TrEMBL record:
<dbReference type="InterPro" id="IPR001128">
    <property type="entry name" value="Cyt_P450"/>
</dbReference>
<comment type="similarity">
    <text>Belongs to the cytochrome P450 family.</text>
</comment>
<protein>
    <submittedName>
        <fullName>Cytochrome P450</fullName>
    </submittedName>
</protein>
<keyword id="KW-0408">Iron</keyword>
<feature type="binding site" description="axial binding residue">
    <location>
        <position position="344"/>
    </location>
    <ligand>
        <name>heme</name>
    </ligand>
</feature>
<dbReference type="GO" id="GO:0004497">
    <property type="term" value="F:monooxygenase activity"/>
</dbReference>
<dbReference type="InterPro" id="IPR017972">
    <property type="entry name" value="Cyt_P450_CS"/>
</dbReference>
<keyword id="KW-1133">Transmembrane helix</keyword>
<keyword id="KW-0479">Metal-binding</keyword>
<dbReference type="GO" id="GO:0016705">
    <property type="term" value="F:oxidoreductase activity, acting on paired donors, with incorporation or reduction of molecular oxygen"/>
</dbReference>
<dbReference type="InterPro" id="IPR002401">
    <property type="entry name" value="Cyt_P450_E_grp-I"/>
</dbReference>
<dbReference type="InterPro" id="IPR036396">
    <property type="entry name" value="Cyt_P450_sf"/>
</dbReference>
<dbReference type="Pfam" id="PF00067">
    <property type="entry name" value="p450"/>
</dbReference>
<keyword id="KW-0472">Membrane</keyword>
<dbReference type="GO" id="GO:0005506">
    <property type="term" value="F:iron ion binding"/>
</dbReference>
<keyword id="KW-0503">Monooxygenase</keyword>
<dbReference type="GO" id="GO:0016125">
    <property type="term" value="P:sterol metabolic process"/>
</dbReference>
Amino acid sequence: MRKLPPGSLGIPIIGQSLGLLRAMRANTAEKWLEERIKKYGPISKLSLFGKPTVFLHGHAANKFIFTSDGSAITTQQTKSIQMILGDRNLLELSGDDHRRVRNALMLFLKPESLKQYVGKMEEEIRKHLEMHWLGKQQVTVLPLMKVLTFNIICSLLFGLERGARRDKLIDCFQQMIEGMCFRNEEDEDVMTEKEILHNVMLVMIAGHDTSSVLITFILRFLANEPSIYEAVLQEQEEISQSKKSGEFLTWEDLAKMKYTWRVAMETLRIVPPVFGGFRKALKDIEYGGYLIPKGWQIFWASSMTQMDNTIYSKPTKFDPNRFEDQASVAPYCFVAFGGGTHMCPGNEFARIETLITIHYLVTRFTWKLCADNSFSRDPMPVPAQGLPVEIMPKKPL
């Protein structure tokens, strides 16, 4: 008879949910899960958000999750996310439906399509800095980055230009985001209207939160790492000096920002925007010598492999050169963008947005942190006080 993983389901309904939520808000979730791993090993059972759950850890678990074809496990988000995003968004689909919808999204998220957006994205970033940074002595980075990424998505993906309509929409959008914390067809290449609506909301939320968090924490790390800041500045100044006054960046310029992107990757390794996720067993599954019963929830914190000292030397040290040779990073150990068929379709969009923003910030401003380096998760990382910084302009936009 196959045995269940070790562990306890805890108090009915509540289970271990409160413990995990408290740990996330105190930024000790990794430690909380490490204690489970020490006690039970990389596979254990618990109860989260009213459902019996199996927690999986390690790069083998990441591979198992990300390479699933949908016949054994399916994606499953928490109830609040399901209610807001709907049941036909990419996070809820598997198998042929997942492939079809992903292919449709990639029509405008692939590099060939994104090349034509570089100028438009840069225009939004310039306007944002003129409105919210120039003439200011202090700004709070995270809320401003959320405004920027929202405006970029509105302009590039949905053709919604600046004005009262967009300003009203961002208020509604922020209210929707607040409800998403952890709480309890005929043509195969065409999405239905319902799928279009659900995936528009998914793209907006994914592009809004993950990119804004990434850019915010890059600024924090650059403030704390002077030698890395100088290397990024040198790379960006060389590009800036090759341009005529007012001339826009090109796709070729972005390709030269190799070190800056390694800084972004190292930021994602240490402070991944997405901590983990949920799946659901569609049938009885044997994994690692244990039974995962049909209908049970599967929880994994994929990003924990990114701080594993058996995978990364001195994992707490900020070292962008880890990513100088991408092939040296073992498969399914760095999964900030997912993996396999579940690779984030918007990763190239995020890369362009991040590189252009960092280019303008380092070449036009210097900054000094006005708060400590602590942060919490709710569920995305939030730096202390939203990362207030004292800023000094260097030259005109």
